[in-house]
Amino acid sequence: xxxxxxxxxxxISADTCAMERVLFPRRVTILAGHFGxxxxxxxxxxxxxxxxxxxxxxxxxxxxxxxxxxxRSAREFLRQAGVELVxxxxxxxxxxxxxxLPQVRGALGDRSRKVLMDAGGDDTGARVVGSLxxxxxxxxTDFLLVLNFRRPFTPDADSALVMAxxxxxxxxxxxxxxxxxxxxxKETTLxxxxxxxxxxxxxxxxxGIPLVALTVKDALLNAAQEAAPGCPVxxxxxxxxxxxxxxRGQRKVGPLFVVG
Length: 260
Prior knowledge:
Blueprint: E1 3-6, E2 9-12, H1 16-23, E3 28-32, H2 39-52, E4 57-62, H3 75-81, E5 83-86, H4 102-109, E6 114-119, H5 123-130, E7 141-147, H6 157-171, E8 177-180, H7 190-207, E9 211-217, H8 221-227, E10 233-236, E11 240-241, E12 244-247, E13 250-253, E14 256-257
Parallel strand pairs: 3-6, 3-7, 4-5, 4-6, 7-8, 8-9, 9-10
Antiparallel strand pairs: 1-2, 11-14, 12-13
Helix pairs in contact: 1-2, 5-6, 6-7
């Protein structure tokens, strides 16, 4: 996906129709997954792609679990792209407390907008989702679990099954679909992607929940489409860096958002 500029906004060109049809067909989409699964990358790419297609989009950052990536660090860029970011501000910007903003309920109730919710995948993150069940329009909502089988908490389909059931119980909401997003960041190869995809298919079978898409970085798009016929493959552009980066000999703390 290439960055372009139009109407004074920084936008990202993407296969917006595929994103909306495959990943975000309903008005509200909640993305869950353990840290490192890639859910924040999917949320950011999705929000920017949908906004570039002319849709009104709110990105709700519910990840209160000390992650390596936080969509709220991208506030200014998202604003320029036409995406409303709903997340703590001011003294609560870096808070890891489960602060539920009134704006979250406002976004969920605004039927004119697409709402993407970036939620943590462990007990704390799922509990935040559970606290909003009275405001979540179930009939208009997809609850998607992002799977990365190169993370220590989900090395195989059986562990993914356990994770999914725990998230459902705590969130008080049924998962409606799975996203296969196995990666090793810069070390990702097609073999890594497809080995994870096979386990995602196994997890789908165990849960009786559809695998809605395989997400990959741009460079692997064509190869993944050939290797996974019949499964929608959605390209992702890397938009965030790890919380800890070595730069000029000094450690930088905090998630970084990159646009170049």
